[in-house]
Each structure stands twice: as C-alpha cells, then as structure tokens.
Design a protein that fits this description.
Helices cover 13% and strands 33% of the residues. It is mostly beta strands. Bound molecules: copper (II) ion.
C-alpha cells in the first residue's frame, strides 16, 4: 500500500484519479439477516449479538470512488446482508419493507447490494440517515448495505420487517418481525492483532 501511494504521488497530477479506491470488504464471513415469510408471518434473524457485534473499521487515508466517498474517514462495514431464507412468495402488489424502529445516534446506513458489485452501489442514505425515509424496500436479492459511524463505540439498529404495498403501507393481515443489528466501531487492529483474532475465532468455532 505504501509503495502504491508513493508511485501515485510521483506521477502527481498526470494521474490524480488513480487515488480512487473501492470500500474494503474487510469483514468475513457475511452476516445474513435471514428473512422468511410463510404466507402470514414474517421472520427475521441475524446471529451477531451485543457481545459479538459486527465490527466497523476505519482505513485512515483512503478516499473512495464517487458516491462511495460517503464512507471516507468513517468506521464502516457491509458485513450484514438481507437474504431470503428459502423461498419467499409474495403477490404482485406485495413487497418486503424494512422500517427503522430505533438506531443509535451517529450510526449511518447507505444502500449497497451484492458485495462484489460494490463499484455500482448507489451509496444513497437510507433508513433515516441524513433525513432519508425510515422505510426501505428490500428488493428480494442478497443486499449488503453499508453501515458507518464517525466515532469509536457501540451502536445498534432495530428494524421492523413487514409486507407492504408499493408505498410501504403495511398489509395488516400479515405479521411483521423485529430484528436488531449490533455494531462496534473499533480501532484498526495491527497485523498481530488480526492473527490473534483469527485464532480466537477458530477456537470458538471448534468448541
Ligand atoms: Cu451476502
């Protein structure tokens, strides 16, 4: 990385756009918020807890391409993704909506998509961020939105998942579900720290 920075600086104004980067997919595995709908009741489940949250990380000095620049200098992650758990059958005028019930001050959400398509995500503020609507329509495919925060600390967001019409008005004959996402913005771990974390994760899984 250092070598690249130096070569870009040496090229200077000839090649200024070479500084552009894509946000990092730094956290694996993906953490899917598994959604179900049995024709009457919505289900929503995600594994991370307050004790074992998704980590938001900052990569100092990076500046991201185009709309992704909303993540510059923030602690961020796209590890959470909305995903259908099996087959979800909806009518032509039925859609699955995510509505913000509550979220920590300072936690931002930007629209993503498939992780490998991050070059083409809109990075639009959603789910209450920057005055956006508290409601966001899930398109039915795996969607990893980007969560970010400007300061270290713990964050959470609780959502109500429901079936609604094209405008987001709920169909009251169906039951929705709540799910809470947990985050912790942490200092970037050193290389040794990363190795330690990896070992710790492996040990925990083996138990
Ligand atoms: Cu995924």
């Amino acid at each position: 990385m250092k070598t690249m920075m130096i070569s870009v600086m040496a090229l200077g104004s000839v090649c200024g756009s070479a500084m552009a980067e894509l946000p990092q997919l730094h956290a694996w595995p993906m953490q899917h918020i598994m959604l179900t709908f049995d024709g009457s009741t919505v289900g929503a489940h995600a594994d991370p807890t307050a004790m074992d949250p998704v980590l938001l990380q900052r990569f100092s000095g990076e500046s991201y391409d185009g709309a992704a620049s909303v993540l510059d200098d923030s602690y961020y992650s796209d590890q959470y993704g909305w995903l259908a758990d099996g087959f979800i059958s909806l009518g032509a005028d039925e859609f699955m909506w995510i509505e913000r019930v509550s979220s920590s001050a300072g936690l931002n959400v930007y629209e993503g998509g498939m992780r490998m398509m991050r070059e083409f995500h809109s990075y639009d503020a959603i789910l209450g961020t920057d005055g956006s609507s508290d409601r966001w329509m899930w398109g039915g495919t795996m969607t990893h939105n980007w969560y970010s925060a400007d300061a270290l600390g713990d964050y959470e967001a609780t959502y109500f998942v429901y079936v609604g019409d094209a405008n987001g008005d709920a169909y009251t004959q169906y039951q929705g579900a709540e799910v809470t996402l947990y985050f912790s913005a942490v200092p970037a771990p050193s290389a040794m720290g990363l190795l330690g974390l990896a070992g710790f994760g492996a040990m925990r899984r083996r138990r």
